[in-house]
Amino acid sequence: MWTARRPCPTIASTCCLVWSTRFLGGRSSRRASFALVMKSPASGSLPDVAGARGGRNAAAASFLGYAGSVNPGRRGLPAGSPAVAGRDRTTWVVRRMAACARVGVIAAACSTWLISTACAGQEVVPMKLQAFDLKNVRLLDGPWKIAQEANRRYLHYLDEDRLLWTFRHNAGLPTPGEPLGGWEAPTVEVRGHFVGHFLSACALMYAGTGDEQLKAKAARLIAELARCQQALGGGYLSAFPESFWERLETMQNPPWAPYYVIHKIMAGLFDNYVLCGNEQALQVLKGMADYFARRLRRLSAFDIDRMLAVEFGGMSEVLHNLYSVTGRPEDLWLAHCFDRAAFLGPLALDHDNLTNIHANTHIPEICGAARR
User: What DSSP element (H or E) covers 51?
Assistant: First the structure.
C-alpha cells in the first residue's frame, strides 16, 4: 500500500528518521540516533543536516513525540520554528521514541514517504475496483426498507431556511425562519456540519430510491450555499467566521473541530456532484479547496502538524476524492496535508498504536489512507 518515494520539494514537510534497536537476550537495547529535517512549503531546498545540533532536538520531540495523543495543549510549537536536525542520545525525544520501540517498531513516522506524492504533475491513477452503482440497487420490503423510508420522510420534513440559517448569518445575508438547535445552534462551534450530512443523505437517498424531490431540495440548498460563498469571497464557505481558523492555526483557544465541519460540507457537495450530477456542487467544492490550500500554504510543517491535534474528520478522504475527478495537483497536495505521519506511520509498520484513542477521529484518517 505504501511506497517510498523521492522527497518532493513542494510537500509541507519532509523528514528522515534513522532508528536502530538491538535485541539482546529477549530485551531491547535501545540505541538510537535520528536526523530530522522539516521545511516550510515556502522554503527552498532541504537544508544541510550535518551542522545542526543542540536545542533543535526539542522541536523534533514536539513534532514526533505524541502519536495518538488527544491533548492539543501539549502539542504546540511556536510559529516559524526552525528546521531541525541533530543527534543526542540523552534527549527526551530519543527516550520517548525508544519507549515506543520496545518491540523494535518505531512509533514515529517518516512523513517523506507518507506525503511526498503531492508533487505537481503526478498522473491520476484510475480506480480499479468500484462498488455497484447505488442507482442499480433497490431494497425489498422488510426492516431495512422501513428504516430507509423513515429516513426519507425525515429528509423531506427538514426546513430549508432553518438548515441554511447559520450559513446565511455568517455571510451577512437575510435569515428567514429560525435556526436549528443542538449542535447546529448559532452559538455552537460545530454548527454547519449537519447540513453536510443532510446533503449527503439527500444524494444517497436519490441514488437509492430515485426521489427527484430530494435531489431538487439538495440542489436548492447548494445554490444558496453558493450565494453564501460568493458573499464571503475567496472561496470560503462555512457557518462560522474565518476567525476560527486564526484560533486553530495559532492554537490560541482553538475552536472545537472546524475541519470536521468542513469535511462534512465538502463530502455533501461531492456526493451531490457524483450521485446527482450537480455541477454547481463541484464548483463550490473546488472553491473551498482553493481557499484552504491558500491557508495551509502559509503555514510551516510544524504549524500544520500541531493544528491536526484538533479533530479534522475525513479531510484526507474527501480531498483525495476531489482529486480523483479534478486531477488538480493542488487538491492532492492539500489531501496529503491531512495524512498524519505520527499516526499512520506506525500502522504502516504493523505497530498497534490504537489503544485509548478517539475512534471517530482516527478511523476517518485510515479511510483517507485507504482512499489514497
Answer: none
